[in-house]
Amino acid sequence: DWTPESFVESTVAELKAKIGDDKVILGLSGGVDSSVAAVLLHKAIGPNLHCIFVDNGLLRKNEFEDVLESYQGMGLNVKGVNAKELFYDALKGIKDPEAKRKAIGKVFVDVFDEESKKVENAKWLGQGTIYPDVIESVSVKGPSATIKSHHNVGGLPDYMKLKVVEPLNTLFKDEVRAVGHTLEIDDAILQRHPFPGPGLGIRILGDVDAEKVRILQEVDHIFISSLKESGLYKDVWQAGAILLPVQSVGVMGDERTYEQVVSLRAVTSLDGMTADWVHLPYEFLADVSNNIINRVKGVNRVVYDISSKPPATIEWE
Ligand code: XMP
């Protein structure tokens, strides 16, 4: 019978046998999957695990600093790399969603490659790939069938010449959380909603720049912290805000405004393959909307996404 304890025990033993005294490099994202993969590997090989956490400038507000601190608290050997400007430069003027994903993926690989060269004699690349990532990337093979390219699957450039180790690639998300719980990883990390690799880059529709990121971080922060404060966060599978490439007319005091529109999105799901929009209480939505419009300069209208997957997807890009 599968239990998180038996999974941890057998996986740690397998990892030890497979990796021996080699060094492993692993890219942390702040999410559940890469964090659990890192702690499992750390349990197996200790300081031979070298983690790299890249700030792509597309993370949530304060995410990089907060998460880096909690990783260090967990005893992980982790290096934080600020690469914001490289990502913003690569994204400049790009509007097409797939082109944005590819640009983000490419800079990520370049930065990661640069950093991994600094770890001498590394033989392995650790990844937090989980089972649904494996099936989704297999089932969308071929250019015409490509739905959205997940840049963190099979994203290993040849020149990195590292063998891949993916300790979670047979697990679903709830199993990953259970394993993380057994490994005594902080609930703040385990209960965290999934967050896409390209981050806010695919929640800013159209071209991305630092100012749009700042606006969306503020909006997202108000939404997510309100969900946490009202106890709704744990009932939602994933939530976030989308900055629309649309301005609308509003009125503030006696003045006409012409500012951005944001959409809020919250879904329930088992594995991200299908999803339903969450019937958040009207009072809650009203409060969040007021807070966003009153506090975030540049936004004068908030809408709520009431589409399910399929036929919509969770992300808008
Ligand atoms: P969609 O939008 O396809 O998203 O319904 C399903 C789940 O996948 C996440 N997602 C991604 N995760 N890299 C990731 O790591 C990506 O490029 C990517 N695109 C979508 C999305 O947030 C949702 O949880």
UniProtKB/TrEMBL annotation:
Pathway: Purine metabolism; GMP biosynthesis; GMP from XMP (L-Gln route): step 1/1. Keywords: ATP-binding, Glutamine amidotransferase, GMP biosynthesis, Ligase, Nucleotide-binding, Purine biosynthesis. It comes from the Bacteria. It is an enzyme of class 6 (ligase). Residues 2-192 form the GMPS ATP-PPase domain. ATP binds at S29, G30, G31, V32, D33, S34, S35. It catalyses: XMP + L-glutamine + ATP + H2O = GMP + L-glutamate + AMP + diphosphate + 2 H(+). Its EC number is 6.3.5.2. Homodimer. Catalyzes the synthesis of GMP from XMP. This is GMP synthase [glutamine-hydrolyzing]. It comes from Algivirga pacifica. The lineage of its organism: Bacteria, Pseudomonadati, Bacteroidota, Cytophagia, Cytophagales. The chain holds residues 194 to 510 of 510 of the full protein.
